[in-house]
From TrEMBL:
Keyword Aminoacyl-tRNA synthetase: no
Biased composition, class Basic and acidic residues, residue ranges: 30-39
Annotated TM spans: 82-108, 114-135
Protein name (Swiss-Prot/TrEMBL): Phage holin family protein
Organism: Alteriqipengyuania abyssalis
Amino acid sequence: MPDRNDHHHQPAASRDAAGSLNPNLNPESPHPETTRAHEEPLGSLFDDAYALYEDGKTYLEAEVAFQKSRASYASRETGSGIVFALGALAFLHLALIGLVVGLIIALAPIIGPFVAVAAVVGTLLVLMIIVGLVARSRFKRVSQAFKGDRA
């Protein structure tokens, strides 16, 4: 005779892992229907979250390594670029010296050597003063733009 407390045996339905009656589970069926919740315990959610954390950490480490190598490359290239830019400016300076000397030599037969030197040097000094005043006005603009910004 069946025991009154024997509520676990149901012919058409079976109890799931939580103990509730689930009519979809049939123990006589060769392939009982199961859900994903029955296949993976609650711990797998934490495993997935931890795997996601580890993947994010790995991605972040890879990104930092990539940015470091990119910054190193940019630093090396910028350094060599500065060296070549200074070299170009040195050659420009030499070319301008040649132009000045050439102007003095070309003007010497026409207006005399001393007047030619005075004319070329005077012109260069006037140009230097004009460019210097323009530079000073630009620096004053920048200074005034930040003067009211006292945070």
